[in-house]
Inverse folding.
């Protein structure tokens, strides 16, 4: 995400400073209240939020208080639910954090025990869904690794002001195992596989359906092809295929792919249009 130089340096130096603090707190098994104090300092020194004007522990939600809320320009950017550093984060903790955010209409929620950090985005449908967008263990990060610094930058004030976390989430919607699985089974890609197999041997006689069966049964994991996310991915890919075909027809010399064009020729136009 290319944090500003000063911000990246702040994140890098603060990470080196807080890693031994987290390690010590973990070995002493400090309680939740003390963990909240440490996380508050981390939000200030690592992530760049002002402790006095942008971080509050007095954010009421239906008669109770969340651990911390981070506000920018008077609006809640995200809520933070904090557990004791020695406590393993579990599904029940996630549900509690999501319930807090949902009741307040806040899209983003952070669940942490100081070492492990999980950031979720909520979608306010029926039912309300939460999606894990960022997850890391602070003690496993390397201050010299640019990718680790960039990941911390997603939650930093500078990243938040540039909507980097939202951008990261948008990329995740496309670059994931479900979408890639759907792309591998799409007509343009299957056509390329068939063509390459024929180049290996003129004796190869295989059709698209057979290639798809191999991909589904022997190449791609079943978990990638099943479930709601897989269905959504297939719809996205199918929509993109139709759009590419329509564009290819519009850009052909005659304004469309001629009706007598063979399937292979049509797929080749699609592949050229998609850059395959």
């Amino acid at each position: 995400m290319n944090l500003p130089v000063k911000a990246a340096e702040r994140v890098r130096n603060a990470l080196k400073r807080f890693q031994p603090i987290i390690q010590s707190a973990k070995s002493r098994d400090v309680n939740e209240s003390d963990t909240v104090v440490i996380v508050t300092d981390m939000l200030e020194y690592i992530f760049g939020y002002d402790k006095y004007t942008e971080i509050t522990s007095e954010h009421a939600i239906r008669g109770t208080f969340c651990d911390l809320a981070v506000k920018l320009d008077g609006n809640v950017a995200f809520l933070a639910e904090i557990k004791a550093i020695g406590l393993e984060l579990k599904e029940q903790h996630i549900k509690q954090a999501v319930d807090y955010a949902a009741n307040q209409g806040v899209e983003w929620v952070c669940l942490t025990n100081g070492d492990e950090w999980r950031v979720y985005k909520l979608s306010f449908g029926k039912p309300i869904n939460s999606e894990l967008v960022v997850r890391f263990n602070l003690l496993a990060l390397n201050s010299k690794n640019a990718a680790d610094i960039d990941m911390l930058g997603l939650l930093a004030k500078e990243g938040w002001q540039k909507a980097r976390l939202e951008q990261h989430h948008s990329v995740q919607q496309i670059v994931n195992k479900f979408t890639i699985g759907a792309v591998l089974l799409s007509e343009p890609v299957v056509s390329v596989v068939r063509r390459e197999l024929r180049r290996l041997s003129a004796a190869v006689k295989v059709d698209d359906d057979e290639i798809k069966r191999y991909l589904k049964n022997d190449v791609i994991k079943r978990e990638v092809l099943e479930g709601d996310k897989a269905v959504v991915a297939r719809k996205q890919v199918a929509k993109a295929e139709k759009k590419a075909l329509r564009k290819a027809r519009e850009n052909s010399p005659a304004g469309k792919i001629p009706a007598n064009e063979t399937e292979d020729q049509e797929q080749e136009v699609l592949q050229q249009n998609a850059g395959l």
Summary: Residues 10 and 46 are 7 Å apart (CA to CA). The beta strands are 55-56, 60-61, 64-65, 68-72, 75-82, 108-112, 116-123, 129-137.
